[in-house]
TrEMBL record:
SUPFAM superfamilies: Periplasmic binding protein-like II, Winged helix' DNA-binding domain. Keywords: DNA-binding, Transcription, Transcription regulation. This is LysR family transcriptional regulator. It comes from Serratia rubidaea (Serratia marinorubra). Residues 11-68 form the HTH lysR-type domain. GO terms for molecular function: DNA binding; DNA-binding transcription factor activity. It holds the Pfam family HTH_1. Belongs to the LysR transcriptional regulatory family. One of its GO terms (cellular component) is cytosol.
Length: 310
């Protein structure tokens, strides 16, 4: 916990920014140009940062800049510090200029939109009417990264082995996998389908996120010859392949919440059952205001309660 009377290290946010930018660009000239400073000033700032932290952060040669082991370990913490500082500064400016209580930044994977909307905005407006709320939708991998580096306050995504130990996770519900196919498909009359009945079929999956990883892992462990003929980025492309009789689609059920198409049907997959856990997540060591903490607890109580009731 931060103690206002505790003496802080003699480092500025600008010096941290210089290190992070150099770590990204891996070139002193490009970094100095991007930051609009001289190369000697950049080198001096880096030396001071290394002196305060007690170790070398980069290796510099005539052709390249690489991070030392210490530099690679420090980089995520430096990025988080900058993101939190920028968000905090933005909030202070908005409060000074427009009033209000600052900004809450919520991340989500697109499929959980049916869980959040319209309930979440109404819930927050009721309890925190002066709070500005931003919603950032992205893939699950990007969500995890933004949680770690402090770009968002908390998020709702899916759990798998890629979730780092640096995050707190609070499961909300299970989201079973289904297959979407045309109603005139020979298998469409079933209410549940064993995975083995999909062997030999052309299958469409999302190319990003953890859906493809979960399906691939299941196929390997069950020794199923189920492979993706098509890998796409967007939901409508997935459905378009199905409508065109080019493939059947495998995806978690939440994606199909708003699917209302007379040509398509949704069937649960079984033998074995496959589902993903949808969870509320945040960084374990986040710098949180009492207001952000209250918002998080409101989400946790409301959406975990809905899962128990449902």
């Amino acid at each position: 916990m931060f103690e206002p009377w505790r003496r802080l290290p003699a480092l500025s946010l600008k010096q941290i920014q210089y290190f992070v930018t150099l770590a990204k660009l891996r070139h002193f000239t490009d970094t100095a140009h991007r930051l609009a400073i001289s190369q000697p000033a950049l080198s001096s700032a880096l030396r001071q940062t290394e002196s305060v932290l007690g170790g070398r952060l980069v290796n510099r040669t005539a052709s390249a800049v690489t991070l030392t082991e210490l530099g690679a370990a420090i980089l995520p913490h430096a990025e988080r510090l900058l993101n939190v500082a920028q968000a905090t500064f933005d909030d202070m400016q908005k409060i000074m200029q427009d009033g209000g209580d600052g900004t809450l930044r919520i991340g989500l994977v697109p499929s959980v939109g049916s869980l959040l909307f319209p309930a979440a905005p109404q819930l927050l407006a009721q309890h925190f009417p002066r709070l500005q709320v931003e919603y950032h939708d992205q893939t699950n991998d990007a969500l995890l990264m933004q949680l770690q580096n402090g770009q968002i306050d908390f998020g709702i995504g899916a759990l798998d082995r890629s979730v780092p130990a640096t995050l707190e996770v609070y499961p909300l519900r299970e989201d079973p996998f289904v297959v979407v196919m045309r109603r005139d498909d020979p298998l469409a009359e079933s209410h549940h389908l064993p995975w083995r009945q999909l062997i030999g079929r052309d299958i469409a999956l999302f190319s990003k996120g953890n859906v493809s990883r979960l399906v691939t892992a299941l196929a390997e462990t069950q020794r199923l010859n189920v492979t993706a003929r098509y890998q796409v980025d967007f939901l409508e492309t997935l459905y378009g392949l199905v409508r065109s009789k080019l493939a059947i689609a495998i995806l978690p059920q939440l994606y199909t919440t708003h699917l209302h198409d007379d040509e398509l049907t949704v069937i649960h997959l079984q033998q074995p059952l496959l589902s993903r856990s949808v969870a509320l997540m945040r960084a374990k060591q986040g710098i949180r205001s009492p207001l952000i903490e209250a918002c998080f607890q409101l989400f946790l109580q409301n959406f975990q309660g809905q899962n128990r009731d449902g």
